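Page 47, continued from p. 46.
Same chain as before, 71 aa.
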Amino acid sequence: MDPTYADLKHEITNTGGDTQPYTIQAGDNLSKVSQLFYGNAKYYEQIAKANNIADANKIQVGQKINIPVRA
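Result:
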């Protein structure tokens, strides 16, 4: 596991909306995704809630989620 998340791959698409699409990659968890998009892992619960994910530990490779824009 790379503590700097250098191995984490992501796509950036400006949709002009309130969310950013993201596809879960191998090795991802919502804390890593939160770190990637927000610079802080603590917002994983907001990502889970925005995607109706009841258990943040149960995401699947290839799963498409939306990253909410933080105010």
